[in-house]
Design goal:
The complex is a heterodimer of chains A (778) and B (445). Chain A has 778 residues and is an alpha/beta fold. Helices cover 28% and strands 19% of the residues of chain A. Chain A has 24 helices and 32 strands. In chain A, the strands form eight sheets. Chain A has a seven-stranded mixed sheet with strand order 14-13-24-23-22-15-16. In chain A, α7 crosses α21, α8 crosses α22 and α11 crosses α13. The radius of gyration of chain A is 28 Å and the shape is globular. Chain A starts with a strand and ends with a strand. The mean pLDDT of chain A is 96. Chain B is an alpha/beta fold and 445 residues long. Chain B has 18 helices and eleven strands. In chain B, the strands form three sheets. In chain B, strands 6-5-11-8-9 form a five-stranded mixed sheet. In chain B, α2 packs across α9, α9 packs across α10 and α15 packs parallel to α17. The radius of gyration of chain B is 22 Å and the shape is globular. The relative contact order of chain B is 0.12. The chains are: A alpha/beta (778), B alpha/beta (445). Chains A and B meet through α2 of A and α14, α15 and α16 of B. The structure holds flavin mononucleotide, iron/sulfur cluster (2 copies) and FE2/S2 (inorganic) cluster. One iron/sulfur cluster (SF4) binds next to α15 and α17 of chain B. FE2/S2 (inorganic) cluster binds next to loops of chain A.
Chain lengths: 778, 445
């Protein structure tokens, strides 16, 4: 520890601290622009100049290491003069257009100039004007306001992993500009809006809609991936106008992914369902809640009476709240049906009944940063888990060896130590090789099934890396969880973790993937799983917050089942055109901003939130609707008066973590390494902006590169084999469905694989996410 | 006073383009120092000690003792270390390294190899400015000769010492001469100076310990090894060892590069240059464009060494002596200098990025008859806010000319502001070089 005195206050700081760190610790504010605790030190703005005893010149606090016995004066005449001098320089070329600047009221330059700026400018010369840049649909630029702090540049390089922005030209002509793809395509790009201390980078969807002081700030939780980013939702007149990160070092740090930040635009979508609706004689009519719920209660009772309760089933989105999930399963089970599942994109359920608890990350989120070895199995890492990927990126920078086995070779922007990319059908075999090799290196024994596999050098390299670590993890991504041999992948990963002493976890797909298990919105003994619910068409379906034709593993089968059913009840904030065809009742339930609720993230952290705005139109919180429906059905246990009561019942208390419900250990899984894949294999990703009902309707996200129409992507050899030219239209056929799309070269795909995205209307007529298909030139 | 020359001894601008080759250099006693070190197995510490004893101070401008700098390289460091030579030579008025590289490239190479030996480095780069392409080409040829003769590469001269040396050329940015800007540039990045500490000795090229010296600094080393540090020190003055190259430009009869011992009185150098062309000496910038200007009377009393010039209020800098006679309008001269710094600021740090443009625009205004009485105070105050507050010394370099010109020639500036014209009558002024203004970036008045 080092002794330091700041403005007469003495304290001890750890070795390696800067004066800025020490000032933070002492609670002393030193003005700054370029400094940011998560970014490298640039020391370019010079706003943080302070006086250091014995130093002849003022020193930048952000870049000056503390030495023992150092005395720092942040408010001495020397320091204040230096800070005022810098402020004057920053303002001479600044347009001072605060009245028309979107940053006004929340601008660091504006705030600090109040303290350090002069009343009038001594600069009488002409000011600099800088041409604006196109940074895509999310970030708006007013580059004349830029103060060249390079926070945005450092963010893209250091945190987002690709230096998409740079400072070109010299001196006063220096300009921040995009140069990689001529725009910013990162899934984390919105963070540069927060980082920019001035109004040079602002939110394109938000700008000019309100002043910061006019909006209420409410806490919430992101309803997308398994991370559960903490949010500040800003509202005005019961409308969500902006979403910002709520700092939580343990979860999202100070970042948000773009979907966390911009999906709020969907809340005001024209597709919002604002009133209960009933289909009568093929026509949709508006109904009162009373009418609609009576209708549902009767229909469900009739089905139970005529066909048995087992003819009822519920498909619940893993983005629904814990309270909604809990009441849905309670309602179904109350009626006598165990057919409820939230794992809509899963296709292999062989783990059911064998798993010790809810599958989870296997560690705390923050522990990712400290890993020294990691193997990611089956994940479109950056797009499926933008901020978890960011943590792995930081770990890799510090020396963690990150390896990847997968069926596509998208750039993770994480330094990858070793990787192997194989067709989906080969993935279990590949992981088996890693297990075998690790066992050989560790002198452990493996099953007879594994003894047969022969190990490739890549698998051996990955195994050697894991074996040599002291803090390793094996992580199953969305693709592995959705894989047709998901249970085998799980069992292999579990073995590998045991052999190598690694942690073993799931990169949680959705905001409530863990919550769904905890709420028992997954089948228990005797109940049907999602695939079975759709495969053996049932008479009555309850769809909670889900759009099954886009959210399920096999949309073709899903649509067929729903169209055949007698009654389909949809509880959703939106009305999707294709839903109107099969549904009988539409119940407008609140999205996450209009209801209280709880998400349990991938590390098992229980995060509750309140409604931030009033429900739109006749929309009601889902938990209330279910509670009333329970009453109408005459079921016991539907007396809750608040979502808190529902939560307390679901969790048996108010835990911060549901540690006792989490368990990735599965016993008695039969390995299925058979490699039967004749023909072309489909590789499906769920593109980041098609993954759930909200992002699909967020206009600005839909304008970004990640939201482009699905293509039929193949490597050069496969294109050649099929006689298809990249850029040309092709017919993709799977099962009974056909989709017409453009063929595209994707050199990272294995031979005989066609990558066709799921979650999009264009491909909703096709079959299972994993399976075989054919491609024909048009 | 000694007239010994050690850098350009016996090299004549008329024949020098033929006598730079390895064979010529060897004939002049070249590579003897390297052979001595390797054949006698002189311990690296002794080499550093000899350089320390010589009081050889960095010839790039700052005058930092070279031996001390070499001694900063951490002995225990595992992994590569680098030697970098700074031949960027972008400071207006400076053209000494040009002659050295043109007529005597092997002496630079030998100095760098010895430096590599002294600090345990196996790889060096010479960063050569891109404006005079022939220098870069010649250095590449010299490297080829040295490699062919076994003076570079593996097991040099049969010893166990390996050293590779490469030439790297810049593209004409002055700021790439700043040592850390230069390192960034070699690394393939934008040439922007780094914040120091850490210094290159600990965190240099590719983050490895690095010695970076000026071309002339390296070129002095072989002589020191052969003749001993003390001998070198004796050539000059205490604390200011050896000889120094001065690139003299301006209104002298024979502008050019002159090698004289440190401590030579300025009038002696002026004599060597044939004295003033016509007209009377008005002012001298003794150390390159960033050194404060000195009026004739002060300058005539100086000796040419770091300490004497510093006492007079300026800097020996790179030894670029810019001589001005009575025909020079100091406002115009300052406008020219200020434009240079405005155009060359890397733009990284606020005071320099914003301040250099401000300074230039105000001086430009004064020169064009739009000055205001308060402008001189304003200029001073702006320089106050730049100096000592920037990442690299370019900020100071931009401020010092403004301060010294307005201090020593205040009346000329006041006259300009009041009368909207030069104190020096236009018919007396000579046509100077004109300011080149990048199209579309016209700095306004
Ligand atoms: C803006 C700027 C430009 C510089 N240009 C040069 C140059 O062209 N050549 C040079 O040797 N040193 C130059 N320097 C000085 C170097 O930073 C450094 O001090 C020098 O290379 C060290 O070598 P020395 O100790 O042998 O002088 C420059 C410094 C600054 C601030
Ligand atoms: S755009 Fe904003 S964040 Fe980027 S350098 Fe300019 S002021 Fe800094
Ligand atoms: S002082 Fe000027 S040249 Fe040096 S780093 Fe700062 S802006 Fe760049
Ligand atoms: S905050 Fe320290 S220089 Fe910018």
């Amino acid at each position: 520890m080092l002794d330091i005195e700041i403005d007469g206050k003495t304290l001890q700081v750890p070795e390696g601290s800067t004066v800025m760190d020490a000032a933070h610790q002492a609670g002393t504010y030193i003005p700054h622009f370029c400094y940011h605790k998560k970014l490298s030190i640039a020391a370019n703005c010079r706003m943080c100049l302070v006086q250091v005893e014995k130093a002849p010149k003022p020193m930048p606090a952000c870049a000056t290491p503390v030495t023992n016995g150092m005395k720092v004066f942040t408010h001495s005449e020397l320091a204040i003069n230096a800070q005022k001098g810098v402020m004057e320089f920053l303002l001479i070329n600044h347009p001072l257009d605060c009245p028309i600047c979107d940053q006004g009221g929340e601008c660091q330059l504006q705030d600090l100039s109040a303290g350090y700026g002069g009343g009038a400018s001594r600069y009488q010369e002409e000011k600099r004007v800088v041409v604006n840049k196109n940074l895509g649909p999310l970030v708006s630029t007013d580059m004349t306001r830029c103060i060249h702090c390079t926070r945005c540049v450092r963010f893209t390089q250091e945190i987002a992993g690709l230096m998409e922005l740079g400072q070109a030209y010299r001196g006063e002509h220096a300009e921040i500009m995009p140069f990689v793809e001529q725009t910013v395509a990162s899934e984390l790009s919105g963070n540069i809006i927060d980082l920019c201390p001035v109004g040079a980078l602002t939110s394109k969807p938000f700008r000019f809609s309100a002043r910061s002081w006019e909006m209420a700030r409410r806490k919430s939780v992101s309803p997308h991936d398994g991370l559960g980013s903490n949010l500040i939702v800003q509202t005005k007149h019961d409308r969500v106008l902006r979403v910002l990160p709520l700092e939580n070092e343990a979860v999202n740090e100070c970042w948000l992914s773009d979907k966390d930040r911009f999906s709020y635009e969907a809340l005001n979508s024209a597709e919002r369902l604002t009133q209960p609706m009933l289909k009568q004689d093929g026509k949709w009519i508006n109904a009162s809640w009373q009418q609609a719920l009576d209708y549902v209660a009767h229909a469900f009772k009739d089905i139970a009476k005529d066909h048995g309760a087992a003819a009822l089933g519920a498909l619940t989105a893993p983005q629904a709240t814990l309270e909604e999930l809990f009441l849905t399963q309670k309602l179904l089970r109350g009626l006598g049906s165990g057919n409820v599942d939230s794992r809509l994109r899963q296709s292999d359920f062989a783990l059911d009944g064998k798993l010790g608890g809810a599958p989870w990350l296997g560690m705390k989120i923050a522990e990712i940063n400290a890993l020294d070895r990691a193997l990611v199995v089956g994940s479109f890492l950056r797009k499926d888990q933008p901020l978890l990927a960011q943590r792995l990126r930081q770990a890799a920078k510090r020396g963690c060896q990150v390896s990847l086995i997968h069926s596509a070779d998208d750039d993770t922007l994480v330094k990858i130590f070793a990787k192997s990319i194989v067709a989906p059908s080969q993935l279990p075999g590949l992981l088996a090789q890693v297990v075998k090799s690790a066992a050989e290196q560790k002198g452990a024994t493996v099953d007879a099934e594994l003894a047969k596999v022969s190990v490739t050098p890549e698998a051996q390299k990955i195994a050697a890396s894991l074996v040599s670590g002291t803090n390793a993890a094996i992580l199953l991504g969305n693709f592995a969880q959705q894989h047709a041999q998901a249970a085998t992948l799980h069992a292999l990963a579990q073995q590998l973790a045991k052999i190598t002493g690694a942690k073993f976890g799931y990169l949680g797909e959705a905001a409530n993937s863990v919550g769904a298990y905890v709420a028992k919105a997954v089948p228990q003994a005797g109940g049907l799983n999602a695939a079975q619910i759709l495969a053996s068409p049932l008479k009555g379906y309850l769809l909670l917050q889900a759009e099954p034709e886009l959210d399920c593993a096999n949309p073709q089968q899903t649509l067929a089942a729903l169209q055949k059913a007698a009654t389909v009840v949809v509880m959703s904030p939106f009305k999707l055109a294709s839903t109107l065809e099969y549904a009988d009742v539409l119940l407008p339930v609140a999205p996450f901003t209009e209801t209280s609720g709880t998400f349990i993230n991938t590390e098992g952290r229980v995060q509750s939130f309140n409604a931030v705005v009033k429900p739109l139109g006749d929309t009601r919180p889902g938990w209330k609707v279910l509670r009333v429906l329970g009453n109408l059905l005459g079921l016991p246990g539907f007396e809750q008066n608040s979502s808190e009561e529902v939560r307390a019942e679901a969790l048996a208390g108010q835990p911060e973590f549901v540690a006792d419900r989490l368990n990735n250990q599965a016993n008695g899984v039969v390995l299925n390494l058979s490699l039967s894949a004749a023909g072309l294999e489909r590789v499906s990703d769920v593109p980041i902006y098609f993954a759930d009902a909200l992002v699909r309707r967020a206009p600005s996200l839909q304008k970004s590169l990640d939201a482009k129409q699905p293509r039929a992507r193949m490597n050069a050899a496969t294109l050649a084999k099929l006689g298809v030219a990249a850029g040309k239209q092709v017919k993709v056929k799977q099962g009974s469905g056909v989709a017409q799309m453009t063929a595209e070269l994707d050199a990272g795909l294995p031979d005989n694989c066609v990558r066709v995205a799921a979650g999009h209307v264009l491909t909703a007529g096709l079959g299972a996410m994993q399976g075989t298909l054919t491609v024909e030139p048009m | 006073m000694s007239t010994q020359q050690i850098l350009l001894a016996g090299l004549d601008p008329n024949t020098g383009d033929q006598t730079w080759h390895l064979a010529d250099y060897v004939k002049r006693g070249g590579y003897a120092a390297l052979k001595k070190i390797l054949s006698e197995n002189i311990p690296p510490e002794n080499v550093i000690n000899e350089v320390k004893k010589s009081a050889l101070r960095g010839r790039g401008g700052a005058g930092f003792p070279a031996g001390l700098k070499w001694g900063f390289i951490p002995k225990a460091y595992q992994g590569p270390r680098y030697i970098c030579c700074n031949t960027d030579e972008g400071e207006p008025g400076t053209f000494k390294d040009r002659d050295l590289m043109r007529f005597n490239p092997h002496q630079v190479i030998e100095g760098m190899i010895i430096a590599g030996y002294a600090v345990g480095s196996e790889r060096g780069y010479n960063y050569i400015h891109g404006e005079v392409w022939s220098l870069y080409k010649r250095f590449e040829e010299a490297l080829d000769e040295a490699r062919a003769a076994g003076l570079l590469g593996q097991k040099i001269l049969g010893s166990n010492f390996n050293f590779e040396l490469f030439a790297h050329h810049g593209y004409g940015a002055y700021v790439c001469g700043e040592e850390t800007g230069l390192l960034e540039s070699i690394e393939g990045k934008k040439g922007q100076p780094r914040y120091k500490p850490p210094f290159p000795a600990n965190y240099g090229l590719y983050g490895r310990p690095t010695v970076i010296n000026n071309t002339e600094t390296f070129a002095a080393v072989p002589w020191i090894i052969i003749n001993g540090g003390e001998k070198y020190l004796e050539l000059g003055k205490p604390n200011n060892g050896g000889t120094k190259l001065f690139s003299v430009s301006g209104h002298v009869v024979k502008p050019g590069v002159y090698e004289v011992p440190m401590g030579t009185p300025f009038p002696v150098l002026l004599e060597m240059c044939g004295g003033m062309r016509n007209g009377k000496l008005k002012a001298v910038i003794p150390g390159g464009s960033s050194a404060p200007v000195l009026p004739a009377d002060i300058m005539m009393d100086c000796t040419l060494d770091y300490d004497s010039i510093a006492k007079a209020g300026s800097m020996l800098g790179s030894g670029a002596v810019i001589v001005m006679d009575e025909s020079v309008c100091m406002v115009k001269a300052l406008e020219r200098l200020s434009y240079f710094y405005f155009e060359e600021s890397c733009g990284q740090c606020t005071p320099c990025r914003e301040g250099t443009g401000w300074l230039y625009r105000v001086v430009h205004r004064i020169e064009h008859g739009l000055g205001k009485p308060e402008d001189l105070d304003l200029l001073n105050s702006v320089t106050d806010n730049i100096m000592g507050r920037t990442i690299c010394a370019l900020g100071d370099a931009a401020a010092l000319p403004v301060r010294s010109f307005t201090k020593h020639f205040k009346s000329e500036f006041e006259y300009h502001i009041e009368n909207k014209k030069c104190l020096v009558p236009p018919e007396v002024q000579r046509e100077g070089s004109r300011i080149y203004v990048t199209p579309n970036r016209v700095p306004s008045c």
